[in-house]
Amino acid sequence: MILKPGKKDIKAIGYYLGKIIVGLSLTMVVPILVGLAVGEISPVVDFLISMQAGLLIGIILIKLCNTDCELNWMQGMVVVSLAWIAAMFLGAIPMYLSGHWGSYLDACFDAMSGFATTGLTLVQRLDHMSLTHNLWRHLTLFIGGQGIVIIALSFFVKGASGAFKLYVGEARDEKIMPNVIHTSRFIWMVSIAYLIIGTFVLSLIGIFGGMKPFSAIFHGACIFMAAFDTGGFSPQSQSILYYRSFAFEIATVIIMILGALNFRLHYHIWAGNRKEIVKNIETTTLFVSIITVFSIVAIGLNQSGIYPNAVMFFRKGFFQLISAHTGTGFQTIYSMQFVKEWNHLALVGIILAMGLGGAVCSTTGAIKMLRVGIIFKAFVEDIKRIILPEKAIVIQKFHHIKNVFLEDRQVRSALLITLAYLVLYLIGAYVGMFYGHPFLRSLFESTSASANVGLSCGITSPSMPAVLKVTYILQMWAGRLEFMSVFTLIGFFVAALKGK
Amino acid sequence: MIKRKFFLNAILGISTEVCYALFIMLAALLICFLINLKI
């Protein structure tokens, strides 16, 4: 028998959702202050309107649903999935008011793309956008990369038990510190430390490349946020190609790889356990995966014969590969070059890279390296069982911060999530094919959306059908939250309709 | 003292992570040269 959600459930969900909306609205203070500093009054008004709307809705929810009860698992998961939808609607308001998006749906697409750190965009006339709105696009990456709920956990949510349920609901099931609120603050500390270093390095490269200091700092900060949070938005429509600098590309590749590492790994390495980087199952799997998939791409590009020397191979092939594997979505080639210049083998390599992703508890999307490593270990264990005598006891273990014995429970969980991602990739590809796009291009774009990558082979554009836009929005949302809280939300609505 | 130790460890930790990224890039560059030599 399914139990119908009670008034208590609705109140708890509404109360915590209100708090998260208030937290999100307050982040708009940053673009408002920057807008005032650079004298962009009209964009500041857009953000004031959006912030007021968000605060109003958030405060009404808090007052109406005021409760002191702690969240249970179901409520926590529903709050998280609804919070991401609320963030999309709220974040889209200033974007739509800017006039750079053709419709509110287009603005919602970009807001979800930003918060989910995807990087697919429907923006128009990007090169003429105000600094304030451009900053907001990149701030959505930074907020979404750390986790919308992490903001609320860091500042607004008291009580570690309820906080942990929200944290897990946002696809972050790794406890870095015993207290989840301290964990959230550590995630912010790592991100801000890297923000300062990364922005400094990128700005310096920009200044030496001939940019004005203010412009170099602005571009450095925006590119850092997009690279470390594996988002992929860029201040210019030509993405990283705009800078035409090898040093800038190298720095961006390093930041993308750092962004694809597990925050728990950052913690242990920063705490002095530096050998962990060569022992951890995620870093070893990431290395093997990148080199294997890059070999496929390189063979494909060699067959195409478009890049004359090793350096061009590296700048074009490897950059796109890392951008895909870490789920960032920066490009140093035009979207149509994927279709017109790259052959099918190279494209399949990029799709594979996008589908695999980076580390768990990082800002990347997709299947992720821990699951790939666990599935590989399970295969090895099964092969050993076949080869060795029947009486032999086969034990498989892996190293993830500590030595862990492989259990059926872990393999089952890894396989289920992997299967869910593969189904999601195929659903989007099917919708793309329904609108007349070839299979490989549809799969490319669908994988890019579901795995929160942001590379495009030209399908994503303001003129694409509304159904395809909504499909990609749902893929970005489900892919970012890793399904569990999305399934719980569906279950919640089913229970509300059919429960007793 | 503890803060200073953590700061030093953090700097060394960041360097370790950057070295890991550089190692991946070097391996990829090697592949580029090998492919370019048609090996």
> Per DSSP, what share of the residues of chain B sits in E-state strands of 2 or more residues?
under 5%
- By helix and strand content of chain A, what is the structural category? mainly alpha
Largest protein interface, residues of each chain: A-B, 34 and 24 residues
Main pleated sheet of chain B: none
Per the principal axes of the C-alpha atoms, what is the gross shape of chain B? rod-shaped
β-sheet strand percentage of chain A: under 5%
Give the helix proportion of chain B (percent range). over 70%
For the record, the count of structural domains of chain B works out to: 1
* N/C terminus separation of chain B: 54 Å
How much helicity do the residues of chain A have?
Answer: 55-70%
Give the end-to-end Cα distance of chain A, rounded to a whole number of Å: 8 Å
Quaternary state reads: heterodimer
**How many strand units of chain B?**
0
The gyration radius over C-alpha positions of chain B equals: 17 Å
Architecture overview:
The longest helix of chain A is centred in the middle third of the chain and has 29 residues. Chain A is mostly helical. In chain A, helix 6 runs parallel beside helix 10 and helix 9 crosses helix 10. In chain A, 55% of the residues are buried. The mean pLDDT of chain A is 88. Chain B is mainly alpha-helical and 39 residues long. Chain B contains 1 helix and no strands. Chain B is rod-shaped, with a radius of gyration of 17 Å. At the A-B interface, helix 9, helix 11, helix 12, helix 14 and helix 15 of A face helix 1 of B.
